[in-house]
Q: What sequence folds into this?
């Protein structure tokens, strides 16, 4: 299937979603908000890959939400009944939020390879990914306060759980640019690569490492980390015990050791496609 806002390639267990509107700074037009969750949910639900990589063509990762999306949500309100307009706008925002939640909810890990700017909605997107990597020229900017609004599609529930709260507050209040080096220092990105080319090579190498492991073990690990972030230690320990009681697969463990002894690639079963309707 072809998309307006990105190209999708699936090879060797890696789904590579590459934003493809560099002349428009990969801004997030209406089609983007429909296409991204559609693609990610399809990969996740139908077990089409073991890991997802997000990257972008051009100088910048993304300039964030296109102004046309704001206006389509009736941002200007209604002179007749502003409360009714506000209620409808709330649902519009929730649809936008679902786009990035699809990344967090995907059964596969999602890795973001970020070059140039990740501005506004680009930060929302990045924080919904499992891991973030940057080129040396990258920067992050929670732009919303500078344009008179409060970020609303995912930054705040996630950013302060990734970096120290003081830094989350500072960059959100000031709308300052956070350079890649500082982003790595405070834990927003895992690694900084010298060039965009080295960045993509490095992230793809990490993706290949993930894809070589048991899909069931990897998706379980993602589930546990997400759950632990939002629950107490006691609740999480109980959930992990329950998960392994039902889904720990002895055959995968045996295959890991046998393959190592036989000096061959490990053969794991793929996740099953999900049945989404009766």
A:
């Amino acid at each position: 299937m072809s998309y307006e806002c990105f190209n999708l390639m699936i090879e060797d267990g890696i789904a590579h979603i590459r934003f493809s509107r560099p002349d428009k700074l990969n801004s997030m037009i209406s089609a983007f908000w429909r296409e991204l969750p559609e693609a990610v949910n399809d990969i996740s639900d139908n077990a089409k890959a073991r890991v997802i990589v997000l990257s972008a063509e051009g100088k910048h990762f993304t300039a964030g939400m296109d102004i046309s999306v704001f206006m389509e949500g009736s941002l200007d309100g209604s002179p007749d009944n502003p409360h009714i307009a506000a209620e409808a706008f709330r649902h519009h925002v929730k649809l936008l939020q679902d786009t990035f939640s699809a990344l967090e909810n995907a059964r596969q890990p999602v890795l973001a390879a970020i070059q140039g700017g990740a501005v506004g909605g680009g930060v929302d997107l990045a924080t919904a990914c499992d891991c973030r990597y940057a080129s040396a020229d990258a920067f992050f900017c929670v732009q919303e306060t500078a344009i008179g609004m409060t970020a609303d599609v995912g930054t705040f529930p996630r950013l302060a759980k990734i970096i120290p709260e003081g830094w989350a507050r500072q960059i959100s209040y000031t709308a300052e640019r956070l350079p890649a080096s500082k982003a790595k220092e405070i834990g927003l990105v895992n690694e900084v690569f010298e060039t965009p080319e080295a960045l993509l090579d490095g992230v793809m190498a990490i993706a290949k490492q993930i894809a070589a492991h048991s899909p069931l073990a990897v998706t379980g690990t993602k589930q546990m980390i997400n759950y632990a972030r939002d629950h107490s230690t006691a609740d999480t320990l109980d959930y992990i015990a329950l998960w392994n009681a039902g889904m720990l697969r002895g055959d995968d463990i045996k295959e890991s050791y046998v393959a190592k002894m036989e000096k061959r690639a490990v053969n794991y079963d793929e996740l099953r496609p999900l049945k989404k309707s009766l």
